[in-house]
Specification:
By secondary structure, the chain is an alpha+beta fold. Helix content is 34%, strand content 34%. The chain starts with a strand and ends with a strand.
Length: 103
């Protein structure tokens, strides 16, 4: 299924927490488990920087921006709770952006 909306983040894993970071943010991790509960979720991808192994990028694919927004509203509390828990495995996070397919 083709994505209609992509949401991307950059993270720095905490020292000594790379394996745990991969577990939480990976393809069967806690974030993906939460996203899968929502209509319109397609998949997530996790990329690790070759030059800096503590640096990662996540790319979450949704059918549409409306599907992503509906997820954020419906699962607001679960999202916030998981975000707080994940602060233990990261030292920095930054939204890269929100994207639509180029025509």
């Amino acid at each position: 299924m083709k994505s209609g909306y992509v949401y991307a983040w950059e993270f720095m894993a905490a020292p000594g927490k790379i394996a745990e970071f991969k577990r939480v943010y990976g393809e069967s991790g806690d974030w993906v488990k939460l996203f899968r509960r929502a209509a319109g979720y397609i998949r997530s991808e996790l990329y690790q920087d070759q030059a800096n192994p503590q640096r990662f990028i996540t790319v979450d694919h949704w059918e549409s921006e409306a599907a992503w927004r509906a997820f954020r509203e419906r699962f607001r509390h679960e999202y916030e709770d998981l975000d707080v828990i994940c602060e233990q495995v990261t030292v920095k996070e930054r939204e890269i952006g929100r994207f639509n397919p180029a025509d």
